[in-house]
Specification:
Elements (H helix, E strand, L loop, with lengths): L8 E5 L4 E5 L20 E3 L17 E6 L4 E6 L12 E6 L4 E5 L15 E3 L4 E5 L11 H7 L3 E5 L4 E4 L13 E5 L4 E5 L8 E5 L4 E4 L15 E4 L4 E4 L9 E5 L4 E4 L14 E5 L4 E8 L2 E8 L4 E5 L14 E5 L4 E5 L1
Parallel strand pairs: 1-25
Antiparallel strand pairs: 1-2, 2-3, 4-5, 5-6, 6-7, 8-9, 9-10, 10-11, 12-13, 13-14, 14-15, 16-17, 17-18, 18-19, 20-21, 21-22, 22-23, 24-25
């Protein structure tokens, strides 16, 4: 079908299950060779499937994800115990979406237990999952000596060797929990903004040089202490929208080369009052998918940053309702899928 644009699919993992949506933002084209067909604009539960193998992390909450496209495995790192509450843990799992298989990794070491650890990233160029500092020791049993000895603003996990390493960059930027973080695969850096009580504004981490950069962008910027904003990279710019605890209805774009934030003049937007949006960028088409908590439950929205325009997708069924900090969304470019766990 010449002249037609094929858009992205989405896969979701939930406390009670995993969902898949194939979403086309423009006109639908034929499925590319090798890509798995999914029903259009429809969420489909993927995990647990009938007869799903064990073990599994039981979808304990406040976790984060990365994706290794070479191994075609999701990397899941998170806090809290397997039942979804209590002590802050530091477990590392992989998930094979094609076979619905979870594998508990038992690495040499691990960062200190943590909660509210959403928005970590996978460095595709150096093939490392990056865990940025969040809340440790705030509740549940935990050794403060362990935290003091092991805490670092950045830990890196190598899937091939099953090894965690505390990077300890100097100087450190002490990243706060509930920040926005997104990876730029073109420049090979991670940009971070926001977080509870954060005072550093917009910062970038370069794994290759193990260096933090306090970017100090010019002009207007989003609030530096914004708690859990929706944040992603769309293929050219970083997009920020909303918050967990604030009524933040502005849609922002950050240009790393120009080191400048700008407000996108959208006519409408997803629910923004304490709606805990999660964003992921379809970098193949420059489109952003948003899952947000509305008054009636989950809502699925799409942003075209170039127009700019938000619009809601009226899917037949939204994923089951979940708590504010229990959702993680990411895009798998090689599979043309979005993945959400809630």
């Amino acid at each position: 079908m010449t002249g037609r644009v094929r858009r992205a699919a989405a896969v979701f993992g939930l406390l009670v299950g995993c969902w898949v949506i194939e979403a086309y933002w423009g006109q639908a084209a034929e499925t590319t060779l090798g890509e798995k067909p999914h029903p259009l604009l429809t969420w489909v539960k993927q995990h647990p499937r009938e007869g799903s193998a064990k073990p599994s992390p039981r979808m304990g909450y406040e976790t984060s994800y990365g994706y290794d496209p070479l191994r075609k495995l999701l990397i899941r790192y998170g806090g809290h115990n397997q039942g979804g509450g209590g002590e802050q843990n530091s477990e590392t799992w992989t998930y094979d979406l094609a076979t619905d298989t979870w594998t508990l990794k038992e690495p040499n070491d691990a960062p200190p237990g943590v909660c509210c650890t959403q928005q970590n990233v996978y460095d595709e160029l150096l093939r490392k999952f990056l865990r940025f500092r969040s809340f440790s020791g705030s509740h549940g049993w935990q050794s403060y000596r362990e935290i003091a000895l092991k805490d670092s603003s950045v830990w890196a996990y190598d899937l091939d060797s099953n090894t965690w390493r505390a990077m300890r960059p100097v100087p450190e930027i002490w990243v706060h929990g509930l920040r926005g973080a997104a990876y730029d695969p073109i420049r090979g850096v991670t940009v971070i903004h926001g977080g509870e009580n954060a005072g550093y504004g917009t910062a970038a981490y370069d794994l290759y040089t193990n260096t933090w950069h306090d970017l100090k962008p010019t002009g207007s910027v989003p609030p530096r202490n914004l708690s859990q904003p929706g944040f992603c990279y769309d293929g050219s710019r970083f997009i920020l929208f909303g918050s967990q605890f604030a009524d933040h209805n502005q849609t922002w774009a950050y240009d790393l080369d120009a080191n400048q934030w700008s407000i996108l003049p959208v006519k409408e937007h997803p629910p923004a009052e304490k709606s805990s949006p999660v964003l992921a960028g379809d970098i193949r088409n420059g489109i952003v998918l948003c899952s947000v908590l509305g008054k009636q439950g989950h809502e699925t929205w799409v942003l075209d940053p170039q127009k700019p325009e938000w619009r809601r997708i009226n899917v037949p069924q939204e994923p089951d309702y979940s708590g504010a900090r229990n959702r993680v969304l990411l895009y798998l470019a090689d599979e043309n899928l979005f993945v959400l766990e809630s």
